[in-house]
Batch of 4 targets.
Target 1
Amino acid sequence: MWLLFAAGSAFFAGVTDILAKCGIRRTDSTVATAIRTIVVLIFAWIMVFLVGSQEQIQTIDRTTLLFLILSGLATGASWLCYFRALQIGDINKVVPIDKSSTVLTILLAFLLLGEPIGLFQGIGVVLIGAGTFLMIEKRQQKGPRGGSGKGWMLCAFGSAMFASLTAILGKVGIQGVESNLGAAIRTGVVLVMAWVMVLVTGKAKAVRQVPRRELIFICLSGIATGASWLCYYHALQDGPASVVAPIDKLSILVTVAFSYLVFHERLTRRSGLGLALIVAGTLAMLI
């Protein structure tokens, strides 16, 4: 049964990107992130109560809380960059760059935390880096409403950078708190940050103007994220992490498949080879 939950985690994680893309065709990506985070926060606290870690809230020390907040701010920045990149770029180009955050995390952990890089991790870093490069083709992207989408790559790399910082800061902050409770606290910070961004950028009125169809897709993307978390947790309960983690990371295959079916985004031979290298690198890093 745990194998089905692991596959479910990868499936819902991959579908999240597709649903989000459908929800930000006309809706501002910052507004969409703020709305979506409400749904994700609900699921995050469901996880907390499922594992019974809510009682640890009173025992969290200031240092741990500080790093959790910093990690939440990094997560918020990553999500804002990621959904902006999805709005103005192709999914098949944005997702590989975002997945490269794994490489950045390993490098930052080596530089800042002194964690050694093993042989297979080194091989994985090279393969994922090469695969990401191959999947990024230099051709004109069309942004929303037919505008230029040249900024998608910058946003995508920003997403990867902040995602890696999330992992580093979260690793420090998670030492004194149960992981699901830490994730819920971080998500709460993301929610506050996202809505502050909505207000500061003067997009509050846009919240009421979100098309009903896109609102449904935005909420569904949040539900998909929550479902992925729940499946991943159940899979880890009964299955080996060495098997569950690689299956979850292969959500990129689900995203690419659905991007073809929904948006008709095709892979060239070059990007197909890049995808194969990313998959091989992900598996190598998790041996």
Target 2
Amino acid sequence: MLWVVAVGFFMQTLDSTIVNTALPSMARSLGESPLRMQSVIIAYSLTMAVIIPASGWLADRFGTRTIFQTAIGLFVAGSLACAYSSSLTMLVAARVLQGVGGAMLLPVGRLAVLRTFPRDQYLQALSFVAIPGMVGPLIGPTLGGWLTQTFSWHWIFLINVPVGALGGLATLRYMPNSRLHGVAPFDISGYLFLAIAMLTLSFSLDGLAELGFQHATVLMLLIASMASLTAYVLHATRRRRPLFALRLFRIHTFSVGLLGNLFARIGNGAMPFLIPLTLQVSLGYSPFEAGMMMLPITAAGMASKRLATGLIQRHGYRKVLVTNTFMVGLAMASFSLISPTQPLALVLVQLAVFGALNSIQFTAMNTVTLKDLGTAGASGGNSMLSMVQMLSMSLAVTSAGALLATFQGSFSRHGAISALPAFHATFICVGLITSASAWIFLQLSPDVARPAGKGVQDATEM
């Protein structure tokens, strides 16, 4: 069963990164501008953010095997629809279907593991499942570039079909259909409030770039987002069992960590979208070459995992997060120096430094968010963190796309014929956003307890 869950996790994480290097090829095939393809990524991550809060209840109500099989089926159907899309609108709709399946693969698979294995085997089982999830982002950009260049971009989706078919058959045979009896009613009102808040916020930002909304429409969407979020808070104070209990925000480390995750990741999440696009659109890299250039980021990130643990144990969360967040922002802004004349070795160093700092950031942010939840709040807090992470990925690409469109229009009016100045300005902006979010972590108490040991890494593997 562990292999079944691991394969599902691999498919979900692979498709979060495999598309990035194929965007320019997709744009040419569909007759679109490569600078206006962010909706392909946003549709997937935003759908996952919306569906994740409901995945646990669905598994409790209908059984882990039933929902996991459904998730695989939707993911494969969405992959096929992506491969045979003939327009950007069809592709975005297919990515939504794929995201619905992807959103349930990890949470339901992890729940199946927790209900199948005894407590003393949890860590070993979950670590096994986590490994393919780490491999997916590692090979995603390179594999996506190779498939696009060797065959066509359609194959980055078609490879999911045989893997998903085998996973579906294995699920039927090896995964027990564990379910809970007497499940409490789902908080549908709270869920709708949160879903509307996330969707309207994302559409308001994307409306400035790809969708071409008028400013009045964008303003109304922002107001609707704030109103929906406020409605959820009022709803949660009255409901006995809300979707996410507001008492979680009484835990100082959780509140600071969750807000830090949301805003710091807006910069972090934009980079996997911006870097391959810059290399292909402005520097003439092939899809495979652009994918290969992403390897230093992941390799340096994996190598720095243990460094993160040591730094946090020595200096504490507050000092590490404030300093590292600021440095991550500087590393992002440094990509504004990228140009056709810049030595390749220097670009590789930039990528590796960013990857190492980014890995330390994720380890510290995730651990400080979850460390004080306790057993009672672990499930709700972890689900909320997963939702915020996917929402921030969507907002990151949305914001980067809006900045690119704004700067491209501005530089075009001033006679610039290259997209490179727009990319440079966008890198500076996302770097400033990330560095500014260091102020959030400054709110942590200096005496926040340091981790005892390997728990830092264990808490952030999934």
Target 3
Amino acid sequence: MRIKLILIFFISFLFYSCETDDSVPVDEYGAVLLGSWSRTDVIPSGGSEGDYRYFDMVATYRFLSDYSYSYTIDFYGFEDDDPEEIIGSSENTGTYRVEGDSVFIKAMINTSWDKVFQPNPETIDLNVEAYGSRFKIVDEKLTLYYISYPADAPVAAEISYIRQNP
């Protein structure tokens, strides 16, 4: 019996000691989030696959040391037109807090514009309830884990952003 317990302990120790976690430890101040994190998505636009034109959408989170944040989405021109031109933008600003491995974001203001439909920036007060996402940072990649709500049921989802140079 004693040998079995020692063997179980030894195997358990080996199992847990082989597990690695490359994530950055989270402190109570959220220092690991400070800075800018971006992702780029190529978006199709058109009535059917034959009509699709593609444009880039760049989404960027900025977390500042005063616990303010911004989340900006810039839309760039179509690849067959002027892909370097920003043709629209939307920015949420507000505050954030970190609790363990979760970040809680409170959007307070949105400013947006669109080259064709709304060329003058419009700002609206949001002041919505804070929403939370569990997060992990590995190799300069921030991954947010959250629940999305499609029409039929909640779905666990995740999205990743790459740390930008200051």
Target 4
Amino acid sequence: MSNLLKRGFYILLLLFTVFFLVSCEASNVKTLHPSELFYIHDDDHILLNATQWTIFDYGVELYEDSKSNDIDFSIRGSQVVVVATYELESNLDSTTLFNEWGIGENDMGILIILFFTRDGEDSLVSNVLVEIGARMSTYLSAFEASNLMDTYFYDPLVPDFNYDLKLMQFYFKLLEKIYLDIYDYSSYNYDSFIDEYLYNQYEYFGSIPRSQTFEFTWETILWIILGIILFGFGGSLTYIFPLFIFKGLKSPFKGGGGKSFGYWFKR
């Protein structure tokens, strides 16, 4: 009888833990975790699919190119991360976000946050914030980045509703600055990248993984319930536990540990 009571207690404890974790996951809506792809965070799918994948592809390529043995070790590992969000600006601390995500190795990171508002079914850009890593700031000043934003993001020839193109013009110009002025890559061609993006702008390349957090799907909950039942009948959770605990928790794309000391501007 004593063993049965103990087993019943553990079952109730496990059920309580499951429901507690589910409720925490549902209420934790203001915390931004890096996406599974790291270089692009757009859980609300504000940006076009091609825009998201382009940022990811070129973000990975920049990081790999900047790790070349021909580059001085102290400036390797550049990462440019883009966040598109409806979150109020007061809810996000860009410096904390930058440092928690560890954008860029050797502090060679850039964080671009696009704040959007809703106007009926339309999305409007309210502000753009750029945070620059501690070492990156010695190569790219806020003043220079702000001028690039004026020219390429706020390009009067591009209509406001095409914020995807505005973003990509600014994004590719930042990459041009990094490739040409920091890493001395002579092959970078801004115009060719913009032309390629325009050609693919309205294509769909597949769904973008969401934020890098553990999500309780019905499949996961069923595994947990099954494990609790087996445990209740004297079974072991040893072989079931890893199936849902470690699923989706790790991503091959992550920050390099970079820091910012609060060097940012917003337009």
